[in-house]
Design goal:
With 161 residues, this protein is mostly helical. The protein is built from 7 helices and no strands. It has one domain: AhpD-like. The relative contact order is 0.20. This is Carboxymuconolactone decarboxylase family protein.
Length: 161
């Protein structure tokens, strides 16, 4: 399956992409740990079947020093011992925030309370914004069939400078 449309070469898509990158920059510069940001982005991307985003976030996390074991276990985080309680709370919030159509209640009070135990207001704002942003990115890439495999770490670094 080839990509349907090149979002990087279209003028309107490029303008939107710049604004999207600016929103991502706010999260990137937040006090939410970079490792948590990549784990959250990876998990949402796995759920949404976004090969491009799984490729990107796996490679960026590995380039930043994330272990292969943790990256391989993100999809099975509940059944693993390699994530902190804070990361587990973020991953639970990510799953419930991503699977809105599957869970009529959205993010449960229990999941929210667990996240509140580990993250302050600024970190929570970044986490909630990140879940929304990565889900939007997943949808963009899936709609146009942006395939994974060609991403190189740092490819979009200029967008964050």
């Amino acid at each position: 399956m080839d990509s349907r449309f090149n979002m990087f070469e279209n003028e309107i898509a490029a303008k939107f992409g710049k604004r999207f990158a600016n929103a991502a920059l706010v999260i990137h510069q937040s006090p939410l740990a970079k490792s948590t940001q990549e784990l959250v982005s990876l998990r949402a991307s796995q759920i949404n079947g976004c090969g491009w985003c799984v490729d990107l976030h796996t490679k960026e996390a590995a380039a930043a020093g994330e272990s292969a074991v943790r990256l391989h276990l993100v999809a099975a985080w509940r059944e693993s011992t390699v994530f902190t309680e804070a990361e587990r709370a973020a991953l639970a919030l990510t799953e419930e925030g991503t699977r809105l159509g599957d869970a009529h209640h959205g993010v449960s009070d229990e999941t929210w309370a667990r996240a509140r135990e580990h993250y302050d207001d600024d970190q929570l704002a970044a986490l909630v914004s990140l879940v929304a942003l990565i889900n939007a990115a997943n949808r963009l890439a899936v709609i146009v069939h942006q395939r994974g495999g060609s991403y190189e770490p740092g490819m979009f670094a200029a967008a964050f400078n």
